[in-house]
Write a structure and sequence with these properties.
Number of helices: 7
Distance between the termini: 13 Å
Shape: globular
Strand order of the largest sheet: 1-10-9-6-2-3-5
Largest sheet: 7 strands, parallel
Number of strands: 10
Order of helices and strands: EHEHEEHEHEEHEHEHE
Structural class: alpha/beta
Bound molecules: 2-amino-2-deoxy-6-O-phosphono-alpha-D-glucopyranose
Helix content: 25-40%
Strand content: 15-25%
Radius of gyration: 17 Å
Mean pLDDT: 97
């Protein structure tokens, strides 16, 4: 795993943008695996500015998102589908029909997992962007998730519900389960870019980079990927 340590969040976002922009410029019909959370926001802002000011086009790009809360419609303000429209897609010239995410309100959860797995088989990510949970999760793969898991429904860890409750009015509003790409779908990407910012990620960053490769720390599987870059600001990299 290649590790880049930056002085601050802005530098982290700038470096991440450089890597993402290279993928899009090299292949205007690239498949981008995207992530939600606060960490990628600086990167997304730069992608929007670059599209608006420099004309980098996303008309041929397709995107696949990592995860979605179960029980929320794509129109729900708190859904990850809404997050992506609001924080990225609305600022790009991308066709929304080319942006894919799990359906949080599918009638049959198992069928929905099969559908999304099938879609990912046909849309292999040229790059997969990841954030990092404070407990070492990637997407919504909580500690203990089998490395060979594909798309599945997961019961969220208490620590994840606590972390994510800052984005909801009340803690009890945070959905308790979610659809997520599994480690297998993530590892299938040609390139992986994982971002971590802030002291609360330091332990997870250490485990991801230097710890034992174990299902107890899902991000540790990334050590086995042939082309994975982790960018951490100095607070997140403090234990390396
Ligand atoms: C959520 C998402 C993850 C994300 C993580 C970290 O649980 N499902 O994909 O990486 O939060 O979020 P943040 O970047 O806000 O710290």
């Amino acid at each position: 795993m290649k590790v880049i340590v930056t002085n601050d969040y802005e530098e982290l976002s700038e470096k991440a943008f450089g890597i993402m922009a290279d993928v899009v410029k090299a292949n205007p019909s690239a498949v981008l695996g995207l992530a939600t959370g606060t960490t990628p926001l600086g990167l997304y802002r730069r992608m929007i500015e670059d599209c608006r000011d420099k004309g980098t086009s996303y008309k041929g790009v397709k995107t696949v998102n990592l995860d979605e809360y179960a029980g929320l419609t794509a129109e729900d303000k708190q859904s990850y589908a809404s997050f992506m429209r609001e924080n990225l897609f609305s600022g790009l010239d991308i066709d929304l029909k080319n942006t894919y995410i799990e359906n949080g309100v599918a009638a049959d959860a198992e069928k929905e997992c099969q559908r999304y797995n099938g879609l990912l088989d046909t849309l292999r990510q040229d790059i997969q962007l990841l954030g990092l949970g404070s407990n070492g999760h990637i997407a919504f793969n909580e500690p203990g998730t089998p490395f060979e898991a594909g798309v599945h429904v997961v019961k969220l860890a208490e620590s994840t519900i606590n972390d994510n409750s800052r984005l909801f009015e009340r803690r009890e509003d945070v959905p308790v389960s979610a659809y997520t790409m599994g480690p297998k779908n993530i590892m299938n990407a040609k390139k992986i870019l994982i971002l971590a910012s802030g002291a609360n990620k330091a332990q997870a960053v250490y485990g991801a980079v230097k710890g034992e490769i174990t299902e107890s720390l899902p991000a540790s599987i990334l050590q086995l990927h042939p082309d994975c870059t982790l960018i951490a600001d100095k607070e997140a990299a403090a234990l390396l």
